[in-house]
Amino acid sequence: MADFHQNGNIATLHNLRTRSTEDLTHELVSYSTSRKISLILPSLYSELEGEALPNILNELAQVPYLHRIVIGLDRADEQQYRHAREFFSVLPQNHVVIWNDSPRMKEIEARLQALGLAPAEPGKGKNVWGCIGFLLACADSDVVAIHDCDILTYEKDLLARLVYPVVNPNFPYQVAKGYYARVGGGKINGRVARMLVSPLLIALKRVIGDRDYIDFLRAFRYSLSGEFAMRTSILADLRIPSDWGLEIGVLSEAWRNLAPKAVCQVEVADHYDHKHQDLSADDKSTGLSRMSIDICKAIFRKLAADGTVFNEEVFRTLKATYYRSALDLLEAYYNDAMMNGLAVDRHREEKTAELFAENIMEAGRIFLENPSETPFIPTWNRVHSADNSLMTDMLKAVAADLRDYS
Predict the structure, then answer these.
(1) How far apart are CA 318 and CA 403, in angstroms?
(2) Digitized pLDDT (tens) for each residue of the chain, 406 residues in all
(3) What is the pTM (predicted TM-score) of this model?
(4) Which UniProt key words apply to this protein (predicted)?
(5) Residue 190 backbone dihedrals phi, psi, to 5 degrees
(6) Which helix (H) or strand (E) holds 315?
(7) What's the rounded Cα separation, in Å, for the pair 381 and 385?
(8) CA nearest 98: which of 143, 131, 66?
(9) CB within 8 A of 235, min separation 6: which ones?
(10) Cα atoms in the 13 Å half-sphere on the side-chain side of 107
(11) CA pair distance 318, 30, nearest whole angstrom
(12) What sign has the CA pseudo-torsion 380, 307, 256, 366?
């Protein structure tokens, strides 16, 4: 049975295994009559060919409380878009597949580029941002959930537990962040969360001192999870990073815009496994190496915006302190794994920590060379202010694609 520990910074809602999914679902159906719930699924076309997404759709088909499902489809040509429409047609709920690479959507993107408001690069952040804009233009949802399409261990209970805190009108939460144990294949997974984010936050606190923002991030048991639920009222002012710092960026926005009592984390699964990224030790432009740099930059930028002064000496000290903290945590992870009959490759973990230490310096170098870099996608409020017909035209473009490529 799970513990019931509260860290005092944000509320932690545990799964004490005392309530069934059916009971939660019945209550959510009742709430959904007055508080409409939508789901965003950012998807690469390649995920339609994987083993995770068919099971996700089978589970979602049993969910009765969803008002709409929005699928953002990336890296697809016309034939693949047509196939995706058929693939997602098993969903009984109102759903739409947004073909992000269609000629009409490219025209929408060109308008954004002309205004200087287009996302800086393709990826999950851009996909999620576009789906949020679509939902805001629909103007008929009160809660939106987001989760990935590569979850190998997906069950409908994950979604029910994720949305419940922000759907229940008796709760104060406007953002719920999912957490779980990253265990699969007889191993403890989640290297970036375990071997980068946790020791980096410990090191930052030792090097630059107490910061409320650091304590806020440290309160999350799995800060890099891709599962969020949010009230739609906060989405129009949400600044989403276009790089791999998406999850940290959303938490940073929650910290900036909301009181701590409006944010919670909720246990959504006993075990969780999904597609694993390569470490890419020899290529800092991809894989976990790229991800680690982007995450570090996101944290450094936020701390700098709140008045922290960084220089080369600070980053050198931070690298050394991080590495020592990572090795200390590795000992704890190893012992935890052994006690639970799981494996941890200590040599591989130490090599990972060495790479992340180098990437902390690389992220610091990039930050110092370009401290004004802002890889955030503009908020939808700003887009609407610059072009008040663009969101409506996006709805028309999606509808036209659905009509012409059926």
Answers:
(1) 55
(2) 468 999 889 999 999 999 999 999 999 999 999 999 999 999 999 999 999 999 999 999 999 999 999 999 999 999 999 999 999 999 999 999 999 999 999 999 999 999 999 998 888 899 999 999 999 999 999 999 999 999 999 999 999 999 999 999 999 999 999 999 888 888 899 999 999 999 999 999 999 998 999 999 999 999 999 999 999 999 999 998 877 778 998 999 999 999 999 999 999 998 888 776 676 666 776 788 889 999 999 899 999 988 999 999 999 999 999 999 999 999 999 999 999 999 889 999 999 999 999 999 999 999 999 877 766 899 999 999 999 999 999 999 999 999 999 8
(3) 0.94
(4) Transferase
(5) 75, 50
(6) helix 312-339
(7) 6
(8) 131
(9) 132, 135, 136, 144, 380
(10) 12
(11) 50
(12) positive
Backbone angles phi, psi at 233, to 5 degrees: -65, -20
Q: For residues 153 and 139, is the Cβ–Cβ distance under 8 A?
A: no
Query: Which distant-in-sequence residues (6+ apart) come within 8 Å of 34 by Cβ?
Result: none
- Angle CA 262–267–269, to nearest 5: 145
8 A C-beta contact, residue 41 and residue 159: no
Return the C-alpha torsion angle 103, 134, 55, 145, nearest 10: 150
Q: For residue 26, what are its two tokens?
A: 């019945």
Q: Are 79 and 134 in contact (CB under 8 A)?
A: no
Question: What radius of gyration do the chain's Cα atoms show?
Answer: 21
Q: Which residues pair with 230 in a beta bridge?
A: 144, 175
CB atoms within 10 A of CB 121: 11
Are 342 and 353 in contact by the 8 Å Cβ rule? The answer is no
